[in-house]
Amino acid sequence: MTSTPGSHEFSVSSSETIYTGAILALRVDEVDMPGGRTAQREVVEHHGAVAVVARDDQGRIAMIRQYRHPVGRRLLELPAGLLDGGPGEQPRQAAERELAEEADLAADRWSVLVDLVVSPGFTDEALRVYLAEGLHELPAAEREHEEADLVVEWVSLADAVALTLSGEIVNATAAAGVLALAAADATGSSLRATDAPWVDEPTAFVARRRS
């Protein structure tokens, strides 16, 4: 049976879990395709995550340079982390926690800058990027593992855009956050409140861990 393009319902006829780890799981779904056939799709379930574009009164962004083992080098990024603070922690609260833990900062004003689906071809991982302003310093946090080596760098928005376009900033979340803020400033666009709906917030891995 054929269907009009754009109208097919992609239902899952079976699913098998291949691996479950600390921060992700891998499952293989058998998905009903147009034309009556099925196809296997590998899906990486992942925690959701948050990131913060923290801008001070001088227009500078707090960025961190951190070692990332999968790529084998230090990257210039935004303060960010997983939604793994427990069942009662909301994304905004996670963003506040990560900003404090990684940059020793708190903020008086928060808004949603941009929502991202990282790589929807194989994973449900998604991030919400916040804009934080009205910054003030906190006592230095204790850090371990890679975070014990991170360095906070203050970068002007114009320089951050230039570093993104030149290939120095390659972290996808950082690039999206920087360019989204530059676009919002340039167009005068209104940003969403922190309780705005997050349609693609991942839930499968958290539900798996709780079951």
From TrEMBL:
The keyword Repeat does not apply. One of its GO terms (molecular function) is hydrolase activity. Gene3D superfamilies: Nucleoside Triphosphate Pyrophosphohydrolase (3.90.79.10). Keywords: Hydrolase. InterPro entries: NUDIX_hydrolase-like_dom_sf, NUDIX_hydrolase_dom. The keyword Hydrolase applies. It holds the Pfam family NUDIX. Residues 45-177 form the Nudix hydrolase domain. It comes from the Bacteria. This is NUDIX hydrolase. It comes from Gordonia liuliyuniae.
